[in-house]
Amino acid sequence: MIKLIRIDDRLVHGQVAFTWTPALGADCLLIANDKVAKDEFMKMTLSLAKPAGTKLLIKTVKDAATFLNDEKSKNAKVLVLINNIKDAAALAADVPEITSVNFGGLRSKEGSKLISKAIAVNDDDIAVIREMLAKGIELEVRQVPTDNRQLVESLI
């Protein structure tokens, strides 16, 4: 069962380990990222940051979709971590269960603008956001579970 889809360019860090994972009761962190899935050093580094007692899976976006659509995975309480909006849209397109995406953190990059204190997007990101909204996917900004939800559509 998918507990949350989160876009955060830091992937696994304190907010994920100490607030989101226990608040959701997640027992599995799934990182969906093509680059990280092929980088043994990044895998090792991210495994050091995962909360104790939580399983960490690192898969390509395509393999993450296969995992999430597999009936055998339905018993896991999965927090999915993605580091960019484009990959979130690709995963949502392949996994019908995804109806909501949390924006947790996207640092500034060239051509981007802040839409909240921790989310910076550029024109390409906004185009993908609009496509996701048009498909009926709810997009919200919250860094931690106790923050008030802000809808992305009101921020762009």
Automatic annotation (TrEMBL):
<feature type="domain" description="PTS EIIB type-4">
    <location>
        <begin position="1"/>
        <end position="156"/>
    </location>
</feature>
<dbReference type="InterPro" id="IPR004720">
    <property type="entry name" value="PTS_IIB_sorbose-sp"/>
</dbReference>
<keyword id="KW-0813">Transport</keyword>
<keyword id="KW-0418">Kinase</keyword>
<keyword id="KW-0598">Phosphotransferase system</keyword>
<dbReference type="GO" id="GO:0008982">
    <property type="term" value="F:protein-N(PI)-phosphohistidine-sugar phosphotransferase activity"/>
</dbReference>
<keyword id="KW-0762">Sugar transport</keyword>
<keyword id="KW-0963">Cytoplasm</keyword>
<dbReference type="GO" id="GO:0016301">
    <property type="term" value="F:kinase activity"/>
</dbReference>
<dbReference type="Pfam" id="PF03830">
    <property type="entry name" value="PTSIIB_sorb"/>
</dbReference>
<dbReference type="GO" id="GO:0009401">
    <property type="term" value="P:phosphoenolpyruvate-dependent sugar phosphotransferase system"/>
</dbReference>
<dbReference type="GO" id="GO:0005737">
    <property type="term" value="C:cytoplasm"/>
</dbReference>
<keyword id="KW-0808">Transferase</keyword>
<dbReference type="InterPro" id="IPR036667">
    <property type="entry name" value="PTS_IIB_sorbose-sp_sf"/>
</dbReference>
<protein>
    <submittedName>
        <fullName>PTS mannose/fructose/sorbose transporter subunit IIB</fullName>
    </submittedName>
</protein>
